[in-house]
Structures are given as C-alpha cells and as structure tokens.
Write a structure and sequence with these properties.
single chain; TIM Barrel; three-stranded mixed beta sheet; 10 helices; binds zinc ion
Length: about 350
C-alpha cells in the first residue's frame, strides 16, 4: 500500500539538454550519439528513482523534448515544418505548435522501443506516459479537421494502438497526460471521456490519467492566483471521470487550492495524490509529505492511494528533483509505518 510513483518527467542531465528551461534543445547533434545519450539518461533516471525508493518508476521522459510533440513527431498527418504560434490552454500562454494537414495515422509504434529499453533496466513496476487526446488537440494548429472532437477521436484511436504496443513491450502502467481537463470542463463531459475510453479500450495494463495545473512556469503560477482560495476544476470533472474506464487518476494537491475532499468524487479509482510541489525549489520534508498523505487517507483506503508528484519535474534542477524523490519515498514510508 501507498506505492510511490511520479507524474512522469525528470530533469535531463546537463550533457543531454540544458537544465531547467522547458523544451530545451538537445546538446548532441550526431544522431547515433544522441540516441546513445538518451538511453544513458534513461538508465540514470531509473537509478535515481530506485535509489530514492520510488516503487513505480518511469523513464523520466528522457527521450522526449516535449511531452506532447515528442509523441506526435512520428505521427502522419502533422507538418512539423509548419509551426504556428497559437494560444493554448484557453489562451493561458502561447506555444509554437505544428500543424495538422491531413488524416492522423501511426505508421509504426512510437515509444515501444523506449519501453523495451526501460523494461530491460529495472525490475520495478514501469509506468510510461503519453499525451491524452484533448491535450494533443489543444497543442496543435489545425488546417484539416476543423472540429476538435473529431480530431481528438482520431488521436484516441492512434493512442490506443500505441498503448497496446507499450503494454506488449512491458509497461505496467500507461498514463495519459491531460492538463487540458482542468481548462475545458464542459468538453471533458461532452467528448473528453469518450476519447479517453477509446484510448484505453482493451488494455490489461493499469491505465491512468494525469490532470494538473501545469509546470511551475510564470503563466501557470499567474493563472493559479486567479482561481480563488478553493480550486473547483476537479470537482466539476471527477464525477464524470469516476464513470470512465480509467483505473487511476493523478491529481495535484501539494501547495494548491484543491480541497482533499475531491477524492471522494472518484468512486473506486486509484488516486495518485500530488504530495510534492514541482513549482518550487524548496524540498519538502518527509514529515510534510507524510502529513499530506495522512489527509488523503480520510477519503480513500491506503490501498488506493499512491503518493506522487504534482506534475512533471523536468523544469527543476536535477539535485532538487532527486531530493524531492527522496522526500516522497521517505514521507510515504513514515505513513506506511503508522498504518
Ligand atoms: Zn502535469
């Protein structure tokens, strides 16, 4: 019980990409050397998590520059040479997004080899993350579909093919990242859940959805200040998500305005509770982590609680991220002992 895990990403070693800035370019130009360097970074990410005592580990997304575009780079129908600067997450901030120019198709598995490699280098349970359908369509310019639900459903089918391959390659948990679920609350009900259920159809691996308030960048921190003392986004979507086919829901809790009682709305889903804040360099003490986990136990049994990070740790310094991994595992251990 209280198995620990992370949202997904970890900082990259300085020899692979510059530390801290999001979407930093690769530092190695040679294709073969870059591929080797990414694999080395995956081994370190696995080792850092194992050393800290994390139970369900990820590859730290070391092979991807961007959590959405990294998957899309190998999907047909998207023109990466035609990037447009568009407002995303309801215009919260702007990003250079590639353009959808034709029907979406996956000519070959995208991350199966990454999963096989990670699987071969850890004996722990392995999680792999993919962007979710709604967040994908919100992070693309569209010159083809002209309709978000239709485009999202095509992506959901492609994601399902990919997820089946990742499961076969040895992933124990397949997580879909959907920060857009905290932005488009009505769309979650109108078409979001249907695309999510399509993405996870027929999988026997554990499936998860990660819904957060974003990395600790200025646009997100400013947005959070407008949300009032009690953040109500999860309360609006969780009752619908509770009816979906997904097994686990990953939410942000540490240093947030999220009331712990939203966990009550998730029915019998596993709950990945964010007890590590990724928007600050201040490292939580194990005692602080334990206190937060204890709060959640009033809302779900320990078997369904998985202490986790609020979001990806890619924009943090590596030393900070490693210290936070340790605090996460140590805090969970304290609570486990109490039980
Ligand atoms: Zn996140």
């Amino acid at each position: 019980m209280l198995e620990t895990t992370i949202s997904g990403s970890l900082p990259k070693p300085a020899w692979l990409a510059e530390e801290v800035p999001l979407w930093a370019p690769w530092r190695i130009a040679d294709e073969d050397q870059l591929a080797q360097a990414k694999r080395d970074a995956v081994r370190l990410a696995l080792l850092d998590q194992e050393d800290a005592g994390i139970d369900i580990v990820s590859d730290g997304e070391q092979s991807r520059q961007h959590f959405v575009h990294g998957f899309l780079e190998r999907i047909e129908g998207i023109d990466f040479a035609r990037k447009k600067r568009i407002g995303i997450r309801a215009d919260r901030y702007e990003a250079d997004c590639p353009t959808v120019v034709g029907a979406i198709r996956r000519p070959a598995p995208v991350h199966a080899e990454d999963v096989r490699f990670a699987r071969a280098h850890t004996s722990r349970k392995l999680k792999f993350t993919l962007p979710g359908p709604m967040t994908i369509v919100d992070t693309l310019a569209d010159d083809h579909y002209g309709d978000r639900p239709t485009m999202a459903m095509d992506f959901a089918r492609v994601l399902n093919q990919e997820a089946r391959d990742l499961e076969a390659a040895g992933a124990d948990v397949i997580q879909f990242d959907e920060p857009a679920y905290n932005v488009y609350l009505d769309e979650v009900k109108d078409w979001g859940i249907e695309t999510l259920d399509t993405a996870v159809a027929g999988l026997s691996a554990k499936t998860a959805i990660h819904i957060c308030y974003g990395y600790g960048i200025k646009a997100n921190n400013d947005w959070k200040k407008t949300l009032g003392s009690e953040w109500r986004q999860y309360a609006a979507t969780f009752p619908t998500i509770a009816e979906s086919q997904i097994d686990q829901v990953s939410l942000e809790l540490a240093h947030s305005g999220v009331p712990t009682a939203v966990i009550d709305l998730l029915g019998d889903k596993d709950v990945l509770v964010g007890v590590i804040d990724v928007a600050t360099d201040t490292v939580e003490t194990p005692g602080e982590v334990a206190a937060l986990i204890r709060q959640t136990l009033a809302h779900a049994p320990a078997e369904r609680i998985f202490p986790c990070t609020n979001c990806g740790m890619v924009p943090l310094a590596r030393t900070v991220a490693v210290a936070k991994l340790r605090a996460l595992a140590a805090g969970a251990a304290i609570t486990r002992d109490e039980l």
